[in-house]
């Protein structure tokens, strides 16, 4: 599509499928994050890494080895912190690009109007 500058039917279908898949993965990631948060944070208060403690009273304790529980906990915390920061960064970049574009258009229009005025002044002197 980028080489010839024309998007044919097959390329459009491929790009549409790519966009659909991307949106589906974002929705699935949000679902997994919510589900993981419910499972991990819900079990946090009764979590134990000691199997003997769990075996002694399985109704009041949730057993999970230390490494997997900490990995899940840290990944969830990082995602809950970084996703809003990413959204804020994208919004700021969008606003900055809009402002920069408006400034560039203003400068181009100013230069074009200055050139028109100079041409009109130059034509009157003849």
Summary, kept brief:
The chain has 126 residues and is mainly alpha-helical.
Task: Give an overview of the whole structure.
This protein has 126 residues and is mainly alpha-helical. 81% of the residues lie in helices and 3% in strands. The protein has three helices and two strands; from the N terminus they run αβαβα. The protein has helices at 9-44, 51-56, 66-125; strands spanning 47-48, 62-63. A two-stranded parallel ribbon has the order 1-2. Strand 1 (47-48), helix 2 and strand 2 (62-63) form a beta-alpha-beta unit. Helix 1 crosses helix 3 (66-125). The radius of gyration is 29 Å and the shape is elongated. The two termini are 52 Å apart.
Write the layout of secondary structure elements.
Blueprint: H1 9-44, E1 47-48, H2 51-56, E2 62-63, H3 66-125
Parallel strand pairs: 1-2
Largest sheet: 2 strands, parallel
Amino-to-carboxy terminus distance? 52 Å
Helical stretch tally: 3
Which shape, going by the Cα principal axes? elongated
Share of residues in helices: over 70%
Q: Structural class of the secondary structure composition? A: mainly alpha
Strand content bin: under 5%
Question: Can you write the helix and strand succession as a string?
Answer: HEHEH
Average per-residue pLDDT, rounded, comes to 90
Neighbour order of strands in the largest sheet = 1-2
State the main characteristics.
mainly alpha, 2 strands, elongated
